[in-house]
Automatic annotation (TrEMBL):
Binds 1 S-adenosyl-L-methionine per subunit. Binds 1 [4Fe-4S] cluster. The cluster is coordinated with 3 cysteines and an exchangeable S-adenosyl-L-methionine. This is 7-carboxy-7-deazaguanine synthase. It comes from Mucilaginibacter corticis. The keyword Secreted does not apply. [4Fe-4S] cluster binds at C40, C44, C47. Pfam families: Radical_SAM. The lineage of its organism: Bacteria, Pseudomonadati, Bacteroidota, Sphingobacteriia, Sphingobacteriales. InterPro entries: 7-CO-7-deazaguanine_synth-like, Aldolase_TIM, rSAM, rSAM_sf. Belongs to the radical SAM superfamily. 7-carboxy-7-deazaguanine synthase family. Catalyzes the complex heterocyclic radical-mediated conversion of 6-carboxy-5,6,7,8-tetrahydropterin (CPH4) to 7-carboxy-7-deazaguanine (CDG), a step common to the biosynthetic pathways of all 7-deazapurine-containing compounds. GO terms for biological process: tRNA queuosine(34) biosynthetic process. Substrate binds at I21, Q22, G23, R36, T81, P207. The keyword Signal does not apply. Homodimer. Pathway: Purine metabolism; 7-cyano-7-deazaguanine biosynthesis. The gene is queE.
Amino acid sequence: MAHQVPEDGTLLPLMEEFYTIQGEGYHTGKAAYFIRLGGCDVGCHWCDVKESWDAELHPLTHADKIVENAMLYPGKAVVVTGGEPLIYNLDYLTSQLQGKGIKTFIETSGAYPLSGHWDWICLSPKKFKGPTPEIARHANELKVIVFNKSDFLFAEQHAELVPVGCKLYLQPEWSKSKEMTPLIVDYVMNNPKWEISLQTHKYLNIP
Ligand SMILES: C[S@@+](CC[C@H](N)C(=O)[O-])C[C@H]1O[C@@H](n2cnc3c(N)ncnc32)[C@H](O)[C@@H]1O
Ligand SMILES: Nc1nc2[nH]cc(C(=O)O)c2c(=O)[nH]1
Ligand code: SF4
Ligand SMILES: [Mg+2]
């Protein structure tokens, strides 16, 4: 699957990078530069970026170039996503970003070992390949995608693994949103430690 990606994290398979508004979760509504890395083998059948899965399709790009590009925008936060970004060693990229005063946020399934220096970790665990216990202990936000009713129990099981104070979100799977959103609304009203997260960028028609 992978290119020969150097272990030191200086070269990363970059699918796309774009400046937009964080659409989901705790930082919803904030301007951020998105860095989308190619490569994922978790296999969510409802994944909304399947084009990211094959790392070979995405050019190895120097982390310094990515940092330089991120610096061109007034927003001082990046979201590193994918694909599954933790397939790669993110120590170099994130230390360079933080060294330039940019906040580092990650979107991850947690299926690979934690690397990088993060201001915010959004863990979105998957049934298909579960998260490591280590990342659950470091999550700032747990965002569970609700595709069917069984995902509420899955969400509660993962809420046991994250630290006290970790934000808890239920986000409807996009294609099932019509059916699942009413169930989520009801669930949150009955279990108010949870909040609802919507993919607001899809309603705003922005990337
Ligand atoms: C495409 S993933 C990339 C990052 C990482 N692989 C992960 O799954 O967290 C980014 C976010 O989108 C969510 N997501 C992906 N497909 C979705 C869908 N069809 N509906 C709702 N959320 C989705 C994921 O759960 C994750 O929180
Ligand atoms: N606007 C916007 N917000 C997002 N939050 C998480 C995203 C992702 O694909 O990781 C995403 C995305 O693709 N676009
Ligand atoms: S882990 Fe993330 S990128 Fe990978 S298939 Fe699932 S939603 Fe898509
Ligand atoms: Mg997305």
